[in-house]
Amino acid sequence: QTTYDYVIVGGGTTGLVVANRLSEDPKKTVLVIENGILNNGTQSSIPGNSGGLNLAAMYDIFSAPVQNLGNQTFLVTVGNVVGGGSYVNGMQFDRGADADYDAWAELGNEGWGWSDLKPYFMKSNAFDPPSKETAKEFGITYETDAYGQGPLKVSIPDYQFLDMKTMFHSWDRVNIPHPKEGFNEPVGVYWSPNSINKATATRSTSRSAYYDPIVSRKNLKLLSNTHVDEIIFEKNRVGALTATGVKYTPNGSKKQAHAFAAKEVILAAGGVFTPHLLMLSGVGPKDVLEAAGVAVKKELPAVGSNFQDHIANYMNFDIQNLNPENQAALNTDAAFNQTSYDEYLKTKTGPYSVGKAQGLVFIALQHFDSGYKKVVSKLRSQVATNFLPARYSKDKNLLAGFVKQREILAHQFSEADAAVGEIVIQPVGFSGIANNKPLSRGTITLNNTNPAAYPIVQWNTFQNPVDADVMIALTKYNRAHWASKELAQYKPVETAPGPQYQSDEDIIRGGIEKGTLQPTFAHPSGGCSMMPENLGGCVSDKLLVYGVNKLSVIDASIIPLIPAAHLQATMYAIAEKAADLIKKRA
Ligand SMILES: Cc1cc2nc3c(=O)[nH]c(=O)nc-3n(C[C@H](O)[C@H](O)[C@H](O)COP(=O)(O)OP(=O)(O)OC[C@H]3O[C@@H](n4cnc5c(N)ncnc54)[C@H](O)[C@@H]3O)c2cc1C
C-alpha cells in the first residue's frame, strides 16, 4: 500500500498519540514513519535507570558553538526511537501555570488557553498516588482530581529515598506556595509524579500507552528504522502547493520509496527535526534555503525561528551523612546496587522502582529575586533587535511576534502566577536549576554543505542579558537554600561551579568553566510556532502550515512560548487536541 489517509512523520511522543486517535476510525488508514527502532531495552523501562542519558536511543547531534557559553557545543537531546522523547526522558510529569497556556491564546491562538487545554491533559493521563503509608511517612500530598483516566500512567511511587524527607521538607518554611502535587496549582514546591506505570513499575511512554495496545489495528502501520527524507508537494495551475506525501528511505538501504496521504501529511518529527524537514522540502526562510542550494517552494521565515529551550545550571554539592540507602550509592556501593536490582526484578519495589527526582520547585521571579522590578524595567526598555538573531531586524512579523511575547513575559516577571525559575529536588547533592522563561531566541538552519545532514542548532543562549540576570539570581537563591539550617546536617560544600565564583560575572564565568551552564534542559521547541502570520507564526491555531495545503505540525515545534514545565505532559495534551482538530476537518 502506498496511499494512506494520513502519513505521520515521527513515531515519537506526539506522533503515536495522534496515530492512535486517528486510527480509532477503522475506515481511516494511518502510516507512521519513525527513524528509530522498536527498542525494548531495560535501560528505558526500569525507572531507576532514568538518571543518565540513554544515548543508544538518542541522536548524536551537537549544537553550533554558543558564543556566550565560551563557544562550547552541546549535545542536542532528542530521542531516536519509537516513543521518541517519552522513551528516553527523565519522566518528570508536570505542567506549566494556567498563565503559561493563557499566553498562547493571548498570542492569537484561539482555543489554546488553559481552560481549552485542560480537558486534553486529563484525556491523556491517569494518576496513581503513593500508598497511604508512604504518603504519611514522607508528607506527600496530592489531588487525584487533577488527572483523568487516560492511557498514559503517571504515579508517585511507594518507594522513596529516606533523604527525600529532609530534602523536600527543607522547603517547608520557605515563603513560597506549597500546593499539593502540582497538577492543579503548578507554582511553588511540590511532590511531582513521574511517567511510571505503578502496576508494572515500568516507564510509561507514548509507545506503551498509545501504540502497543492497538498494534493489531489493520488500518495502522508503523514503519520503524525508516527516515523521511522529504515532503512531496504538488503545485496546481495557480501555483498553490499541496502536500501529497513523503519520500522515505529505510535505514541502511539506498532505495527511496514514496508514501502518499489522501487527507494530510502530519509532521511529528520533534522540535529539531520538523523545522529541518520543512526546510529540506523547500519551506522556510529564503536566504537559508538558497544558501544551502534548496529550491524555495514556499518562503516562510518562521521555520527555524523562535527556537527556545530552558537554560540549565547543573550545580553540585558535596554532602555528608546521607542515609546509607541513598540514590548516589546505587553507583558507588556495588552490594547495595545488586540487592536493589534483585529486589526490583523480584518484586518490582525498592530503589529501582523510582525515578531520579520526585520534588520540584517552580517559582515566580519575585520569589527568588528581590530586585525583580529592576529586571522587568530592563526588559521593557530594551531595543528588542539588539538582542535577537539578525533575521528579526529584516522581518517585521517575526519582530512583532517577539515583542508581543516580551510583553507577556514582562507581565509574568512582575506577577506571582507563573514560574520563571525551577529547582529540581533530588535526594542527593546534585542540584539542577533552570531559567524557564528565556528571552533569547535561537535558530535552526541548514548545513550549507550537506543540507540533508543534521541541521545547525543555535540556541543563542544569553544573547539577551536578562536571561543571565535571572540565572544569576536563581543560582544565588539555590546556594542560600543549601546553606540554610534545614540542610545543615548534610554539611553541603558546593563543588560545581564552586564557591570561588561569587560576583555576578563570576557566576556565569564559573558556570562556563565548570560546564554547569547548559543551553538546554532537553526541551527544544518553538521552531515552527503556532501564531498568526503577522506575528511571525509558522502554523495556524488549527496546526496547518501557512501557505501550503494539507500539511500540519503537532510536535514541540509549535509551542509559541515555552511554559515553565518539563514538556512531556504538555506534548501529550497538544497531541490529543491535535487529533481532535484533524478529525474535525476530515
Ligand atoms: C533526555 C531527555 C530528557 C527529558 N526529560 C523530560 C522530563 O523529565 N520530563 C518531561 O516532561 N519532558 C522531558 N523531556 C522532554 C520531552 O520528552 C519532549 O519534549 C517530548 O518527548 C517531545 O515530543 P515530540 O513529539 O515533540 O518529539 P519526539 O518525542 O522527540 O518525537 C519525534 C520523533 O520523530 C522522529 N524523527 C525525527 N526526524 C525524523 C525523520 N526525518 N524521519 C522519521 N522520523 C523522524 C524521531 O526519531 C523521534 O522519535 C526530555 C527529553 C529528553 C530528550
Automatic annotation (TrEMBL):
Keywords: FAD, Flavoprotein, Signal
Domain Glucose-methanol-choline oxidoreductase N-terminal, chain residue ranges per copy: 79-102
Residues at which FAD binds: 13-14, 81, 228
Biological process per Gene Ontology, one example term: secondary metabolite biosynthetic process
InterPro entries in the cross-refs: FAD/NAD-bd_sf, GMC_OxRdtase, GMC_OxRdtase_N, GMC_OxRtase_C
The keyword Acyltransferase is assigned to this record: no
Molecular function as annotated in GO: flavin adenine dinucleotide binding; oxidoreductase activity, acting on CH-OH group of donors
Pfam families: GMC_oxred_C, GMC_oxred_N
Gene3D superfamilies, alphabetized: FAD/NAD(P)-binding domain (3.50.50.60), Glucose Oxidase, domain 3 (3.30.560.10)
Active site residues of this protein: 523, 566
Transmembrane residue ranges: none
UniProt entry tagged with the keyword Nucleus: no
Protein name, per record: Alcohol oxidase
Lineage of the organism: Eukaryota, Fungi, Dikarya, Ascomycota, Pezizomycotina
